[in-house]
Structures are given as C-alpha cells and as structure tokens.
Amino acid sequence: GKYLGLRKTDSTTPASFDRKSQILNAAIIFTMFKVILDTDTNNELDDQHAIAYMLFQPAVFHVLGITVNATHVGDGIKGHMAEALRVVELCGYKDKVPVVAGADCTDLFKNSHEKMLPAVDFIIDQVRQSEEKVYVVAIGKLTNVALALNRAPDIIGPKLKVVWLGSNWPSEAHRRGEYNLRNDWSSAVEVLAKVESHGLELQMLTVYPAPDNKQAVTGTCAVTLDVAEVQQKVAGLGPQLSQPIEGRNDSGQFSCFGDYSVSLFRNRKYKGQPVVTCPLHDVCALAVMKDPTWSQACSH
Questions:
Q1: What pTM, to 2 d.p., does this model score?
Q2: Do β-strands 61-68 and 273-274 pair in parallel, antiparallel, or remain unpaired?
Q3: Tell me: the pLDDT tens digits for 168-218?
Q4: Per residue in 276-292, pLDDT tens?
C-alpha cells in the first residue's frame, strides 16, 4: 500500500518545488478522475466540504456517485444520508449525482449478514461497467468498501484504486485509534489483506503524526480553517437555490453552500465548547489526487 503524509512547508521551501507544483497544476487540469466518494457525512464538518470540493471541480472529478455509511456520531444512516443529500442540493447537484445508502452498524461482519446494501452494489456495478479506472475515495469507515471487495473480488485490478482517509502515523498507539479506523477495525483488516492477497491498489492518507515525529511530515490534521477565514472568504458563495432548505440541528435555512459552510464552522463544538479552528481532513483525500505534490508518499 501507499501511505501519504502532508508535507510541511515554510520559507525554506525551494522555489523549484513551487515551480513544479505550478507545472503540474497546469497539466493536471486535463486529467479527470472517475470518483465514488464513500462518506459518513453527518459526523463533523469535513465530509461536507469534501463533497463540495469535489462537486465544484467538474473538470477534475467525474463523480459517479456518493455512497454513505454511518459511524458512531451522526444519527445513524438516516442522519448521514440526510446530510449528504442536503450538501449535494446546496452545491446545485440535486438529482444529478446518485447518493446511495450503505452500512449502518459499525462492524463489517454484522453488516455482512444483513440484506444487500445498495451502496455496496453500486460500487461493484460502477467498477465492472467502467472502461477506465474508478477511484473509490473512502473518507469514513471502510465497511462499504470491504463488503464490495469481499462480495466481488473480480473488481480488484487495474480498473480500481481505493483511497482511504484513515489511521495515524506511524502507529495507532499514541491516539487510541483514529476515528475512521476505530469505527470498523475488521473492515480495515479486510481491505489491507486484499493488498497482499489480490494486489489491491490502496492509498492511505494518515490523520495524526506521533508526538515525537522528527520528520517533515504531518497528517491531514495540519490542514485547517478558522471561523473568521470561512466567514471572509466563503460566505455567500455557490449556486443560489430558489427555495432555501433547512440545515442540520436546527441551524437555520440556507440557499447556498457558502453560507452553510459558515454555519458548520460557527456551530462546531468539542466537548461542549466552541471550536475556532477546524481541520479539513477529508478534503485532503481529494486534494492530493488533484495535485500529488501536496503530499509525501511512503510505500510499504
């Protein structure tokens, strides 16, 4: 598998690195990634921004669909589906992008004995039907992905790449397990096993570095925005709906994603206290696809 950490940059970053990034950005605009985004949208606020980041760049991301799963936080699959549909509508893509329900409970083996999950079938069908590589970008637990791989191992091959935002670097010990991993350890084990047994192409973006990290590598936790930045730069942006829709948790009514983004940041709390700065972990999974120079790869 390939593990990615975000590169620390400062005034010592060589000009050649910036130039390389500019050249790559100029070329990569002609590359379109066929993407299925697998998300637990009603957890924090980074899934919502990952969906918007993806939908607002149609020249880069050909979105096949959004599959949804439920993690411990977010009012079950019903809550996660509602938030995903809300964000898609605020981005102007209602009824244009499939949003498909998947695993509810947080254990691979419990889900494997349930009725067929639409999200799992959707992943399998899209990979089988595609003539080009499909990127399944998982920014929550890996249950939907693991079930798809177990049910249809024939999809593993040159037409499939799994990108997962999950786990810590270089181990889990210092953080008691990363959230996406902790929500379904068994699925992570199954997906990693497919790398060895079937040659699955897997790329992982790690979340938190170890406290004694000596290298110039962080995790996705380093990519943050604060409430003031969002208010200044994002408020009012995006397509305007003719009729406003309700935000989550009685946060009000919204006609565009920019205003909803501001509300998500303003209402973010940790242990009951307002949070000024929030990481955008999930956006990173898509951002480093667009421009790999924004990350540092390590193969194992």
A1: 0.87
A2: unpaired
A3: 866 655 556 788 888 888 899 999 999 999 999 999 998 887 666 555 557
A4: 888 899 999 999 999 99
